[in-house]
Amino acid sequence: MEYVVHFETLGCRLNQTETEGAAKAFIEEGFVADLNTITASETANKNVVLSIINTCTVTGKAEQKARRIIRLLLEKYPNAPVLVTGCYAEVDSEAIKKIDRERIAVLKGTLKHLIIPLAKYFSQNILLTAKDIELFLDKNNTITNPKVATSLKVNPFSLYTPIFKKHTRATLKVQDGCDCACTYCRIHIARGRSISIDVEEAVKRAVELEQNGAREIVLTGVNLSLYSGNTSSNTKASFGMLLDSLLANTKNVKFRISSFYPQHITENLITILSNDRIQPSFHLSVQSGSNRILELMNRPYKAQEVLLASQRLRSIKPSCFLSCDIIAGFPSETENDFNETMDLCKNINFAWIHAFPFSPRPSTPAYSMKMQIPERIKGERIKKLTDLAIKGKINYIQSLKNVEYNAIVEGMKHTNDYVHAVTDNFLHVECINAMWQNNLTYKQGDCIKIKLLDSDEESIKQGKEIEAKALIVF
User: Fold this and answer.
1) 348 neighbors 306 (Cβ within 8 angstroms)
2) Separation of alpha carbons 235 and 58, rounded Å
3) Which member of 8, 152, 175, 344 has the greatest number of CB atoms within 10 A?
4) How confident is the model over 251-264, as pLDDT tens digits?
5) How many CA atoms lie within 13 A of 78 on its CB side?
């Protein structure tokens, strides 16, 4: 009989990376790791001996989704305790335990590294209960039990894997935590202070990923702008210095930046980002185009710095895919404030806007701010931002018709009639499968060259994954 550990991941790419690392720990102990998203229609699986869900707390909806999935895990895997970790587990463990005190174990997100010794312990004691798991985790917690600190090294970057089961692009976590205290956000509460991986260790992992066949490495963290890792000479390195070292010590692998604060897009960093092995897609953490709202949010930049960052990025990669985050309906946001946000987005001409309604988070200053915006108005503003985002993506793709790009194959779709691939500028494209012409087959992770034909307007409008049609160029 095979013993299966099922994994669910909510939220950011950082969570996805850590889940892959957790799966590796269990695979090394002889378990089968199942990373497929659970569905309400699937039948109960009695071979699952443990479910692990890595949660998010960015919005109330994220927490609501976590609770729904936890209940589904309890239903579909009747023989398995559920281990809940991540940011939601860090800030509200009691609400999670209330779902089912007998079958749920909670592991705070800041102690996620304890999954590694848990995997070994589980291999020796397959039929563990939730209470058994929590007792083990508490015993091995170096914070509450300092005596074990010498035998269990605490490493926030330990959930690492050189081989990814679910994703075609490798991800390298180089930073965690945040020293900012944005008034709407409690990620800095859930993740703690900013910490960075040493430059030497980051380079070692990048080299390993490339040797294992990675064509692209996504650099990720809670706030990459705060990267400050130790060098071999025991000095601190900036994110730009880290990039320099990664480029110098690898050969062909390309690097993608997951997200960055606009004020840190400096002239020095731009010089490094101009390297051909830095992918032409960038995401700016913006949130608002109103300086008044940015100040209320406690964001460390002005709208003008967002505009300057976009200009600098396009000065080195003119056709880069440039996206951003925007929060609509922050407390006291007026029509004028929102119009300033819309104007900034239009002036920059983002290729995509991730628009979110303000979600009041407990324990944050914005939770109790006066002049909360009605949900109806939030919805109207999100609609305007989403319409602008759709228009921006369609126009961006149409401006690149007949341009050729390298792309990585995600897989085959529609009974192998089409190849699904992701381009250097991070477009999900559907290519006509030309196997009948060249007798070739394509598999996940293959590098191909494509020519953009047109945007897939209906797919974009419906929020589907495919964004453009393309032709494979041989």
Assistant:
1) yes
2) 34
3) 175
4) 999 999 989 999 99
5) 3
